[in-house]
């Protein structure tokens, strides 16, 4: 049962390794057959959606074949596997990606063409799987792509949300949220597996009993039980050999209900409060809101963690029966942030209460199973749950958390005798007015490795967030810098650039991204510069068409395309970008000959529905845009475009067309960023702060190929320590004063005077917590340098080429390899 597996290495499969299975003729036949037999229509009646379904079905046939083979191979090899627990997987669309990974894109394109169908119309029919908020969910999607590509045994576990992240509409400049019911017309990729349904207990009470051996036994009598039904989404690795699975749980009511308990009295009230089982997986929570009080969210977290653990244990038992000794050898669980941290006490409950292992044995297994990734230092995003809430929903888990904490306190007492301050700091329980459970502390204590997501971030995790934990467990905290999959974020989304690169350096770069460095020698080559910039120009023209179609606004494709795409948050400082745009506008109004290359500022951003100031910033961008875009006096020097409903599929159109990448967070606030990597990979030049992965990008591309500005992490800390005074900047810099005062007039919102005043207030009375004013001048200077660089065509082409060439480090294959080597300890398994 244990044939040879090999150490993980980058698969060197070429794109064609699987494509030989289907030529154009066979592909055509398969699509038509699905049109007839799966969809009950024909070539004459079929609309684009039917073609999309039929094409997907043709691909899915191949996918399922490889899925079966993969699963059989993993089972036969009894492989150790990573289980990636994530409340979010931001997958986007799958058809194009799956075709590319099977090496069938060109075949499909040609086949559909012969059928009179344009492949891009077909691809547009696919709704995005927007089961995530942003970076964290998209990272999970990139990682499972890499895991499959590198032929590593892995499974993603998450929630099958009925509604993904809300759809954003912009009405009169303001964000409106609409539901995202992405499965209204079915999803051609997912497979329901009712046979693997799990039951999840909730609420109720804990009974203390004596077991047969005289030991105390705990029995949880749940107040209700919900069912988790799994949906499997195949994850196709590049080359099409390994197809792993993303297993997403949908909640359903269970006929199985403990009526004895219910009728015993006293539970009627509790039961009345119970949420309907079906609502658990109904909707993805938009992040950035305070978590406290969100009972349903805690239930979501427990729901998917419990289903996934049961699923893992079922599979483990099939191979190893009741022998738990090998569990942590076979199973590693990566917690993507603290959202699935409740899995730690859940595994302890299973081992202690159900498998009747003693605590120490159980803890030895559990603490060798989990590893935890931290994605943020922002205090408001560090999860804490009220003890009261846990007691009500998961009474046994609360007991277990207390026991974990009690033993941990004993450990602390040994290390730092009598140090109660230390104990209070590191305790899982926060003794505030309302007692809280700190999920971050639980995750660190219950995991064998903890990682941050960029060098600077991991350093701050060690030095600021968990310094005492780092002292206590010297080798537990580490760094794995994020990465992105070059298959989706270059090969598939930027076919022109991909073709140019392949022509120049061969076709191995999608699986060995450091090969891009071979382009460096052509950075000064005029012919290559022309070819590279011609591709950029074509991509800009395509985006301009899209902008026109979406907004009705015509943009000049000779202008600099300047892109800021990410969630709307004060720390990401879209308002710094906006203030600078207003400054340029003002300078042009004052002096029409003000020397600047024309520039199109393009935004994409969703604000959490409850985040008022973020929504005001969106409104402000749109209102300033209205004014600038219609002001004849500035001669089209500036355009401001806000593209509504930013999502993965829109990013795929924006990124290839970007000249400039805005990465302007307050230093120390953006854990890593991954959009920064995608944009640079596609030849955009970054203007950014020394924050997150920008620092490592700067190291790779060199200082002369990036525009760095602003206060550093240390400077930010020093300013805050000394007491930051935004009014100093307001009174000492006349431009800043004029800009903020402008926001206070009705110039941009004549129909609604004062609508933007809160934005000004946030940067003055509000204390400007993200140091917008402190960084404004330096940002403005960096923009001038950028403008100058762009005017020098050769220089810019060289910079753009070198940005692409130097992005080898930022493939998610490298990140995954680091997890494999240092945390997961997996072997590849050739399928
Ligand atoms: O904000 C971070 C990004 O900096 C990072 O690149 C991404 C992936 O690691 O995760 C984002 N993030 C952090 N998303 N949610 C959180 C907090 O839960």
From TrEMBL:
EC number: 2.4.1.1
Names of required cofactors: pyridoxal 5'-phosphate
One GO biological process term: glycogen catabolic process
Xref: Pfam families: Phosphorylase
GO molecular function, one term: pyridoxal phosphate binding
Catalytic activity: [(1->4)-alpha-D-glucosyl](n) + phosphate = [(1->4)-alpha-D-glucosyl](n-1) + alpha-D-glucose 1-phosphate
Compositionally biased spans, kind Polar residues: 6-19
Coiled-coil zones: none
Any single GO CC term annotated in Swiss-Prot or TrEMBL for this entry: cytoplasm
Family: Belongs to the glycogen phosphorylase family.
Protein name: Alpha-1,4 glucan phosphorylase
Species name: Glaciecola punicea ACAM 611
């Amino acid at each position: 049962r244990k044939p040879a597996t090999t150490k993980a290495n980058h698969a060197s499969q070429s794109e064609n390794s699987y494509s030989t299975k289907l030529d154009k003729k066979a592909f055509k036949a398969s699509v038509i057959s699905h049109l007839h037999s799966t969809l009950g229509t024909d070539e004459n009646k079929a609309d684009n959606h039917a073609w999309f379904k039929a094409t997907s079905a043709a691909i899915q046939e191949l996918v399922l074949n490889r899925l079966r083979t993969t699963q059989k191979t993993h089972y036969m090899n009894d492989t150790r596997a990573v289980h990636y627990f994530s409340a979010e997987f931001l997958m986007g669309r799958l058809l194009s990606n799956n075709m590319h990974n099977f090496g069938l894109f060109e075949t499909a394109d040609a086949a559909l063409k012969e059928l009179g169908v344009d492949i891009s119309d077909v691809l547009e029919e696919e709704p995005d799987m927007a089961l995530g908020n942003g970076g964290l969910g998209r990272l999970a999607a990139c990682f499972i792509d890499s895991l499959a590509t590198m032929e590593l045994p892995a499974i993603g576990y998450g929630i099958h949300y009925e509604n993904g992240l809300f759809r954003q509409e912009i009405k009169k400049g303001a964000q409106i949220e609409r539901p995202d019911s992405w499965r209204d017309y079915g999803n051609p990729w997912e497979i329901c597996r009712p046979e693997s349904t799990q039951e999840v207990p909730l609420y109720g009470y804990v009974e203390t009993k004596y077991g047969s051996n005289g030991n105390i036994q705990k029995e949880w009598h749940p107040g209700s039980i919900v069912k988790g039904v799994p949906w499997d989404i195949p994850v196709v690795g590049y080359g099409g050999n390994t197809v792993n699975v993303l297993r997403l749980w949908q909640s359903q009511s269970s006929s199985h209900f403990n009526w004895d308990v219910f009728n015993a009295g006293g539970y009627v009230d509790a039961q009345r409060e119970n949420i309907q089982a079906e609502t658990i997986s109904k909707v993805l929570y938009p992040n950035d809101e305070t978590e406290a009080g969100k009972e349903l969210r805690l239930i979501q977290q427990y729901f998917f963690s419990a289903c996934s653990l049961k699923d893992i244990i079922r599979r483990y038992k099939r191979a190893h029966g009741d022998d738990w000794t090998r569990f942590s050898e076979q199973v590693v669980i990566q917690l993507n942030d603290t959202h699935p941290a409740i899995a730690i006490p859940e595994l302890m409950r299973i081992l202690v209460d159900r498998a009747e292992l003693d605590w120490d044995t159980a803890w030895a297994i559990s603490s060798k199973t989990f590893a935890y990734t931290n994605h943020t230092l922002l205090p408001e995003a560090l999860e804490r749950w009220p003890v009261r809430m846990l007691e009500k929903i998961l009474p046994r888990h609360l007991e277990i958390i207390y026991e974990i904490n009690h033993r941990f306190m004993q450990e602390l007492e040994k290390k730092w005798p009598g140090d109660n301050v230390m104990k209070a700091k590191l305790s899982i329980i926060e003794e505030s007015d309302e007692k809280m459970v700190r999920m971050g502390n639980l995750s660190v204590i219950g995991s064998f490795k903890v990682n941050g997501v960029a060098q600077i971030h991991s350093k701050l995790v060690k030095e600021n967030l968990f310094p005492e934990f780092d002292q206590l467990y010297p080798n537990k905290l580490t760094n794995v810098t994020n990465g992105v999959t070059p298959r989706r974020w270059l090969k598939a989304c930027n076919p022109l650039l991909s073709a140019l690169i392949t022509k120049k350096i061969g076709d191995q770069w999608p699986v060995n991204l450091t090969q891009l460095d071979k382009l460096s020698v052509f950075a000064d080559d005029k012919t290559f510069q022309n070819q590279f910039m011609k591709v950029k120009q074509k991509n800009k023209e395509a985006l301009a068409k899209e902008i026109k179609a979406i907004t009705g606004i015509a943009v000049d494709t000779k202008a600099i395309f300047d892109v800021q795409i990410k969630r709307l948050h004060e720390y990401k400082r879209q308002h710094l970008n906006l203030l600078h745009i207003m400054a340029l506008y003002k300078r042009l109004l004052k002096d029409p000959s003000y020397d600047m290359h024309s520039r199109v500022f393009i935004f994409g951003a969703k604000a959490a529905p409850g985040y008022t100031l973020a929504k005001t910033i969106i409104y402000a961008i749109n209102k300033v845009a209205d004014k600038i875009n219609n002001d004849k006096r500035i001669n089209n020097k500036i355009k401001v475009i806000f593209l509504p409903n930013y999502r993965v599929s829109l990013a795929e159109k924006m990124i290839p067309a970007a000249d400039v990448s805005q990465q302007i967070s307050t230093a120390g606030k953006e854990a890593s960023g991954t959009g920064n990597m995608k944009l640079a990979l596609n030849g955009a030049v970054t203007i950014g702060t020394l924050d997150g992965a920008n620092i490592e990008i700067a190291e790779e591309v060199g200082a002369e190929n990036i525009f760095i500005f602003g206060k550093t992490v240390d400077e930010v800390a020093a300013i805050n320590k000394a007491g930051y005074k935004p009014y100093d900047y307001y009174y000492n810099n006349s431009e800043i004063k004029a800009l903020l005062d402008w926001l206070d007039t009705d110039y941009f919102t004549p129909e609604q005077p004062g609508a933007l005043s809160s934005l000004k207030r946030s940067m003055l009375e509000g204390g400007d917590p993200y140091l917008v004013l402190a960084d404004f001048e330096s940002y403005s200077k960096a923009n001038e340098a950028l403008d100058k660089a762009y005017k020098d065509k050769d220089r810019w082409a060289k910079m753009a080429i070198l940005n692409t060439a130097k992005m080898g480090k930022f493939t998610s294959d490298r990140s995954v390899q680091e997890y494999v080597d240092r945390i997961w300890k997996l072997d590849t398994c050739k399928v």
